[in-house]
User: Fold this.
Amino acid sequence: MRAMSQIKIEDLKAQDPAAHRSAVDRFETSFAQNVNARYAVAVDSFGAAMRYALEIAGVGAGDEIITSPYNSRVTHSAILSLGARLVFVDVEEYSLNMNSRLIAGAITGRTRAIVPVHTAGLPADITTIHQIAGEHGLHVIEDAALAFPSEYRGTMVGGTSDFTCFGFHGLGVLCAENPEWARQCRAKSHPLNEAYAADSLHHLANAESEWIRRTEIARMYNHAFGELPELQIPADRFDCEHAWNLYMLRLNLDLLRINRAEFMEELTRRKIDARMHFIPLHVHPYCSDVQSRQPEDFPVAYRESMREVSLPIRSEMTDIDVGDVICAVTETAEKWGS
Assistant:
């Protein structure tokens, strides 16, 4: 990643030969430098990072949090655990990120924060979201569970909002711009195991090369699928760098003689690990406590989720592995195209 710190584990050891700093401290310092944040606090999970951010922002019973229905249950659970209420805003059809033009209409006197989601690692419209939040005195807490390392208009995701919460190889990392907020997070969290932190330092040292490989795979997929009318390649932005932690292909079902489940079964038969990554929270079977339960309440999120297929995109994939995925998807689309 162009803006990522080039700090490696060997450099950190050279700076600290007596190991006076713990592995946790070294990991947090390096992570903050990588995303251009003032402070980073490592916690035991992404859900914990999100809950701490909400608590520090003062979210409590009866408050409203504006977010996207196109998300995992982790953020949903963190919000509800504090007695707050989710207020959903539908997503953009192209990006699957929260439609920033709809946010202002969802704000009430009880709104405490906006939680934008960087879907699959593609940055949301943070500039507009910050402007709206500033006009209404709201916190911005970025859900960057899948957004490391991504870049928004020349700036790494992680250093511009009140809080940014990352998922990182099983850890959660809360980035904050206020030293008191970072202190409060450390006071709330359980101390991270040193061995776990050392392992995370290893992953952090390899993060750029892993991102480069995922980007290569995404481009190979895009080249193969971009001209097939039955398929829609994932969104990207010219002013951003996508983290490519997911590759969310969409099927043009009106041009196929099979449905999404049957398409995925065809891939499974060919030993391709295709998945449906998101069920919109307003129709999720395990989220019965949200207020809006009808698909048409947030029609774009529902419609697009029903044609999404996530393909494997892992840095350790070889070109042969990628070719196997491309062959399976292309031949299935051509076989069942109308």
